[in-house]
């Protein structure tokens, strides 16, 4: 963006638990300071006081970055802001915006709120607005919540270069082209089919604990949370929160058929995976099993 002034940012909250806001505030302090030095956050319902949402809606000023947190509804009876639906407010905001970024899984894919049948009309931003005339494609940052560094990297790339490569789900390729499995410290256990338990430091969490790392796109084990850790490093199975299919039923359990995981890692033919699994299970790696028992 060539404008010498700081790009303006509006953070619109729809149907949300505020988790992505909390995630942003947990960003590396130096990066967060750089964000506020580089962008002008003119509205956030919890972090700014100079302007109200009505001020933004009634203004003729353009918005450089519109960040949307939460799923959207056109049903005022279910969820409303200022006596109107989140859909109607967002319709006005999108027309003012240069870049529209869905922050988190609810905004990107509908998330938890959209899974309930009684929540009629609750959808993602893209489901409501993908066919409207926008200056740029809606960018989806899946995650529950999204990693703060993913949001910051996306905004700085757009600010400096004006474009970003996206995958088929509208996610930045730079951040979502790899799998959560890549960089996982438990990969050797995965290769030799040595299963661990929830909360433990050793063992793979894929075969029994429901870990979705081998089929979930995200850089969680490359860009670490708080610069030090990730779910799998802390003994928590990946729940696949960056994917459109999140959330699933019974997320902490691996669905199996005759003892074999029903879903296999991405990119591996099921027959080949079953053969590899059978061979690996015939080996007993004393070093790995000893670490598991310690």
TrEMBL record:
One of its GO terms (cellular component) is cell envelope. GO terms for molecular function: 4 iron, 4 sulfur cluster binding; electron transfer activity; ferredoxin hydrogenase activity; metal ion binding. Belongs to the [NiFe]/[NiFeSe] hydrogenase small subunit family. Keywords: 4Fe-4S, Iron, Iron-sulfur, Metal-binding, Oxidoreductase, Signal. It comes from the Bacteria. GO terms for biological process: anaerobic respiration. This is [Ni-Fe] hydrogenase, small subunit. Its main location: other. Pfam families: NiFe_hyd_SSU_C (PF14720), Oxidored_q6 (PF01058). It is found in: Cell envelope. Its cofactor is [4Fe-4S] cluster. InterPro entries: Cytochrome-c3_hydrogenase_C, NADH_UbQ_OxRdtase-like_20kDa, NiFe-Hase_small_C_sf, NiFe_Hase_small_N_sf, NiFe_hydrogenase_ssu. Heterodimer of a large and a small subunit. Signal peptide: none annotated.
């Amino acid at each position: 963006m060539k404008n010498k002034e700081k790009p303006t940012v509006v953070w619109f909250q729809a149907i949300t638990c505020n988790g992505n806001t909390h995630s942003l505030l947990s960003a590396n302090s130096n990066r967060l300071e750089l964000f506020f030095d580089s962008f002008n956050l003119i509205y956030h319902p919890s972090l700014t006081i100079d302007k109200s949402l009505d001020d933004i809606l009634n203004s003729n000023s353009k918005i450089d970055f519109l960040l949307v947190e939460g799923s959207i509804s056109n049903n005022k009876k279910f969820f409303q802001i200022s006596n109107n639906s989140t859909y109607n407010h967002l319709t006005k905001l999108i027309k003012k915006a240069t870049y529209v970024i869905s922050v988190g899984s609810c905004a990107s894919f509908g998330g938890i709120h959209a899974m309930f049948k009684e929540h009629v009309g609750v959808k993602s931003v893209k489901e409501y607005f993908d066919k409207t005339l926008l200056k740029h494609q809606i960018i989806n940052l899946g995650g529950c919540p999204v990693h703060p560094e993913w949001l910051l990297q996306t905004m700085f790339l757009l600010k400096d270069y004006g474009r970003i490569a996206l995958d088929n789900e509208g996610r930045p390729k730079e951040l979502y082209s790899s799998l959560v499995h890549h960089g996982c410290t438990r990969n050797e256990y995965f290769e030799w089919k040595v299963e661990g338990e929830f909360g433990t430091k050793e063992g793979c969490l894929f075969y029994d604990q429901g870990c979705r790392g081998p089929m979930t796109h995200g850089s969680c084990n490359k860009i670490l949370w708080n610069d030090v850790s990730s779910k799998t490093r802390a003994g928590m199975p990946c729940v696949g929160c960056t994917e459109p299919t999140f959330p699933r039923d019974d997320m902490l359990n691996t669905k199996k058929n005759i003892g074999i995981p029903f879903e296999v890692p991405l990119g591996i033919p099921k027959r080949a995976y079953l053969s590899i699994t059978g061979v690996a299970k015939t080996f007993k790696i004393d070093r790995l099993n000893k670490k598991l028992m310690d």
